[in-house]
Write a structure and sequence with these properties.
By secondary structure, the chain is α+β, with helices and mostly antiparallel strands. 67% of the residues lie in helices and 14% in strands. It folds into two domains: 118 residues, no CATH class; 65 residues, no CATH class.
Length: 256
């Protein structure tokens, strides 16, 4: 009986050992499978991370590309705009150069013209009725000095020449009165002058006993008869604003 029990114990022990050994054999493949699964999962996770990173980089690159394309379009539009501006400026420069050349040519023509105008003005004053002659000739000399002044522009010189002509033109319609002296027969006589444009230029002594009229053809004063004393007196009063304008009968000697 005891022999049987021992055999059973031995058999049980052998079976337990065999079962233990069998469980170890089964456990190793499972561990390997789990490890492989874990490694696969990690590898997949890393691959996904790489994919996500590449996708993010691709999005950034696409955004950069679109930005670059937009900037390129804007730069193209701006460059076209600048090109048009440059073309317009070049056209303006060419136009200005032509104008400058024209201005230079105009100056070459205007400067001699101004000298001729001044000479003509001087000759006219000397040939004209002799009122304010000294002042008028001084104006001519100032014009010559202005033409020789490099600080004065050509346009300003021309303006002053035209202004002198305007002044001389205005003398033709002005009515004025002044006082001075005449040399008659070697004697200086104090007189009142009166002038109506260049039509009549008369003088009368302060005592109103003598009167004269300028004869521009003979370039001298001509004595008037007594019948002209009152008309000359009236003309002087009208020129001074002391009497209302009215018809006055006088001999007329105009400038030729």
């Amino acid at each position: 009986m005891s022999v049987k029990i021992r055999k059973s114990l031995v058999a049980s022990a052998l079976f337990g050992a065999a079962a233990f050994a069998s469980s170890n054999v089964m456990a190793d493949p499972l561990n390997d499978i789990q490890k492989v699964g874990q490694q696969t999962q990690k590898a997949a996770q890393k691959s996904q991370e790489k994919v996500d990173k590449i996708y993010g980089q691709s999005i950034e690159m696409i955004a950069d590309y679109r930005t670059t394309v937009d900037e390129t379009e804007l730069l193209k539009v701006y460059n076209d705009h600048v090109a048009r501006l440059v073309a317009d400026q070049n056209a303006n420069i060419e136009s200005l150069e032509r104008q400058i050349a024209t201005v230079d040519k105009t100056k070459q023509d205007v400067v001699p013209l101004m000298y001729r105008m001044i000479d003509t003005l001087e000759q006219f004053i000397k040939a004209d009725v002799p009122f304010d002659t000294e002042k008028r000739l001084e104006r001519v000399e100032r014009l010559r000095e202005t033409l020789s002044n490099a600080k004065v522009t050509t346009s300003e010189k021309y303006r002053q020449v035209l202004e002198a002509y305007t002044v001389e033109t205005a003398y033709g319609t002005a009515m004025t009165a002044s006082q001075g002296s005449l040399e008659i027969n070697g004697k200086n006589i104090n007189v009142d002058f009166a002038r109506l444009g260049r039509i009549a230029y008369v003088a009368q002594s302060f005592d109103q006993k003598n009167a004269w009229v300028w004869d521009n053809t003979a370039k001298q004063w001509q004595a008037l008869g007594e019948e002209y004393l009152k008309p000359v007196k009236d003309m002087i009063r009208i020129a001074r604003g002391q009497a209302a304008p009215e018809l006055v009968k006088l001999p007329i000697f105009g400038a030729e």
